[in-house]
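Recap from last week: sequence in, structure out.
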Amino acid sequence: MSARTARIAAVDLGAASGRVMAAVVSPERLDLTEVARFPNVPVRVAGTLYWDVLRLYRGVLDGLRDTGPVDSIGIDSWAVDFGLLDADGQLLGNPVHYRDGRTDGVMQAVLREVPAAELYAITGLQLLPFNTIFQLVAVRDRAQTAAARTLLLIPDLMAYWLTGEIGSERTNSSTTQLLDVRTGTWATGLAERLGLRVDLLAPIREPGSPIGVLTTDAARETGLGPVPVTAVASHDTASAVVGVPAANSAFAYISCGTWSLVGVEMDRPVLTEESRKANFTNEAGVDGTIRYLRNVMGLWLLQECLRQWQVDGIAVDLPELLRVAAKLPPFAAVFDADDPGFLAPGNMPARIAAACRRLDQPAPDSPAATVRSILDSLALAHRAAVEAVQNLSGRHVDVIHIVGGGARNELLCQLTADACGIPVEAGPQEATALGNALIQARALGATDGDLNNLRALVRATQPIRRYEPRGNRTAWAAAAARLKT
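Predicted structure tokens:
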């Protein structure tokens, strides 16, 4: 292998599964192969929903063993959740899942102490009840927190176990609502005001910086030797945005999986009152960029329906459901996909039916009708977010890039193009792993340049499908108006 070609392990941990990908990167080449995939199944114990983080780490080790020799390892994951370490560096219990109910009512209590406008001015983050700041307030008086010495977000925890090195990567740190959006440093004054311990917060590390090398134990478990671990954009959406195959700056992205993250890339945060009221967030991206976006509930709605139908013994085949759903009349029943009532696990088909009835619409009467209702409603949510992000940012959008697992859903991609009246380019499906690998490759010198160059490599090497808008925009506007009644 030449000096300008690197073999890289990209560990991508999602809310439903983890995967280890092997990438080969050079200035003209970007190949990605899935080496291992393993489930990420939360566990409820005594009323609390936990991540099975040790099982997740076992999957990482086993996957790395199967990659063969690599020049670097990088890890990304979902945001906001964390583990606490004691003075000996040992984990104090399993990290709690962001969908757990421990934060119920906490956000409202915090906003009585720090008004929403002030919180937004400091952090630039949208209000989500599971943000790290609210999770920490929920447990600030517990014995486990008192015994803690370090807080690590999930990818930083995995990197610590692999290398023994402690740090907090910037893009994921920015999702905690504890990072000052203007200075890029921890908002210690805010933390102290809420009675949170600032000494738990680890030093910020930048994407592309070295973390350390595999410890003796990790090297033995993986068979890899003292391989370097490199900080990537460890928030999975930040890595996915690196992997967006944009040809210029006039694009919006939808990183579509369990969540749909809908936004644009900016040079500076948008901190207007209009932005705050629209619940848009300013999260750190690579190379000093800002991911200006809004969370939309995403394919969680569909995933939970499929799980419930399985529990109920209803045999469903997703490709067949999508084929039938595509032939059903549009807008038979739509609902607000961002209703907080959909956040927790549970009987999703029943909740969707109830939401439709509240809007004086007939409830979907079959799994296929439920799927069509979900996808119409998600397309409407995408439409609202894309319109809002253009108005709030002043950034015109000529194309929408859908990346991630949602890029496989042809019906959703077409409906999003129709709803927005803007062409959609779908793919790559593994944008997160590609972005992870590209930041490592740049750090290794296997590719160079700015984000435009990295994206040009994605565009030149990865399959992309284009969907042109079709249908009647007036009908979409009328469907959107039904949600406001």
